[in-house]
Design brief:
Helix content: 25-40%
Oligomer: single chain
Structural class: alpha/beta
Distance between the termini: 32 Å
Order of helices and strands: EEEHEEHEHHHEHEHEEHH
Bound molecules: adenosine-5'-triphosphate
Radius of gyration: 18 Å
Number of helices: 9
Largest sheet: 6 strands, mixed
Number of strands: 10
Strand content: 15-25%
């Protein structure tokens, strides 16, 4: 479970995220959407504990990220869109290393399953330099899953993946939610958000401008009846420009 209360992040004197609050329950997949520069990555990086917010409170599984960061991060994974990998660790060594950091005692059993799930078996001995962009993305996803996190944050998870990998990764995301993880998925691929997410949080210029189930957002606007998330997104973004 993820709880964000009054999150504000200021860069120099620019408020990139302004009093953002939301909750993600176990089993939910929530789409974090918004135009370029809206503050999505800043929000995700703050929830992941990479950025320190100016104000606000973040809880992961009941653990306060500021006061109890180790317990909070134990149940959390953040998969960024530009994964930073270790130059001198192979694919398999990445998984062993991350497994060790999180104290995953059955990592030796989990690693072959993850390599298989993410189609990395034949690349397991390669270094990051020898991987394609899509393979690097798959490795970042595998690293995020090794400790069975209950809170998963994905920033454009399908970037660079081929159609087969996109389908499998969508399956992986759904399966993790069915296993009880609370998931935030930030993406500009609105058809993906529409397909996977039960609810969306839309931000614009650092503030939440809409939140709820996609059908509810559409039903609040009779003129958008029968249209998809893309039309709702464009109408809301236009209104707040
Ligand atoms: P995109 O869809 O383009 O990835 P985003 O919604 O993820 O955008 P952020 O990356 O969170 O947006 O950026 C929000 C705002 O904060 C932008 O105006 C950006 O220029 C600014 N910003 C982001 N990182 C920094 C930083 N390190 N220093 C100063 N300003 C920053």
């Amino acid at each position: 479970m993820i709880r964000v209360e009054g999150l504000t992040k200021i860069y120099n004197d620019f408020k990139a995220v302004d009093d953002v609050s939301f909750e993600i329950a176990a089993g939910e997949i929530v789409g974090l959407v918004g135009p370029n520069g809206a503050g999505k990555t800043t929000t995700l990086r703050s929830v992941a504990g990479i950025l320190r917010p100016n104000t606000g409170r973040i809880e992961i599984d009941g653990h306060d990220l500021e006061k109890d960061p180790i317990a909070a991060k134990q149940g959390l994974a953040f998969v960024p869109d530009d994964p930073e990998l270790f130059d001198y660790l192979s694919v398999e060594e990445h998984l062993r290393f991350v497994g060790r950091i999180y104290g995953v005692s059955d990592a030796p059993e989990r690693i072959p399953r993850l390599l298989d799930e993410l189609e990395l078996v034949e690349h397991r001995n390669k270094l990051p330099d020898e991987l394609s962009r899509g393979m690097r993305q798959k490795l970042a996803i595998a690293c995020g899953l090794i400790h069975d996190p209950s809170a998963l944050l994905f920033d454009e998870p399908l970037t660079g993946l081929d159609p087969g990998a996109i389908r499998r990764t969508k399956g992986t995301i759904r399966q993790r939610a069915e296993m009880g993880a609370g998931i935030v998925l930030s993406s500009h691929l609105l058809h993906l958000v529409e397909e996977l997410c039960t609810r969306i949080v839309m931000i614009h210029r650092g503030r939440i401008i809409a939140t709820g189930a996609i059908e509810d957002l559409v039903s609040q606007r009779p003129e958008l009846e029968g249209r998809g998330l893309e039309e709702v997104f464009l109408a809301l973004a236009d209104e707040h420009s």
